[in-house]
Specification:
- The structure holds 2 protein chains of 2 kinds.
- By secondary structure, chain A is an all-alpha fold.
- Chain A is about 70% helix and about 0% strand.
- The longest helix of chain A is centred in the middle third of the chain and has 21 residues.
- Chain A is elongated, with a radius of gyration of 21 Å.
- Chain B is mainly alpha-helical.
- Chain B is about 70% helix and about 0% strand.
- The chains are: A mainly alpha, B mainly alpha.
- At the A-B interface, α1, α3 and α4 of A face α1, α2, α3, α6 and α7 of B.
Amino acid sequence: MIAWDDCEKCEELLQPFLDRELSDAERAEAERHLEGCGYCRKRYVFEERIRGFVRQAVVEEMPPGLKAKLAALRTPL
Amino acid sequence: MSDVTPQADPRKLAEEARDRVRFEEDALELADQVYRVARRLVSTREEAEDLMQEAYARAFRSWRSFQPGTNLRAWLLRILTNLNIDRGRRVQRSPDMQPLEEGDYFLYNKLEEDGGSAEERVDERLSQDDAVAALSAVPHDFRDVIVLVDIGDFSYADAAQILEIPIGTVMSRLHRGRRILKRELADRAVGSTVG
């Protein structure tokens, strides 16, 4: 049986888990909980999805012409 | 034995010129990636362009302080974030204006409560502009870390070096910043969640 406290702990580990910044022990603890807990698993999958969505939505490519302006700042030979 | 001083040694000068050109070319190669981060550290495209030019001008002037073999993209962004902070482009919020943050499951739970699956709700309810506006609403200190880690793909350790803050501060700002971001997204997806 999964205790509610474990879900709270799992929620705390969500971000460093997805950032691959957990210690091996913490990672194992999160994985053990996720195996048995659909509630947290769905929320982990969703977190990855929302990060991907934000990342894709906010990326703006460099305007044309800026690279030439930067290159013009080089020290002349 | 040559009595030519190292400074005037034509071979040394040629070597230095070659190193500088290589540095400049490497830095320019990274401009697209640096811009993607710069663009989200400031509010407008014009500000991002100015900041890029100031940062590259400084980088080209101080190229000798870059240690070959270390992370050039992080080095460039360190210059850029320092300039951004020094130039006072930040509008600090007073503490009572700090946006609310909720738990990490908050956005998912809000979307589920709203009916249907949370995944579908993201596609239906959140536009690209919503994401940009939600990120812009995150205070600078938190947003800088989110932008470096989530858009710039930097590790916590790199972000700590770039911003010259302890790694523990990176982690706590990232954690809180993403929670604020999700709260902002929830407001846009299901209407204001205040109260």
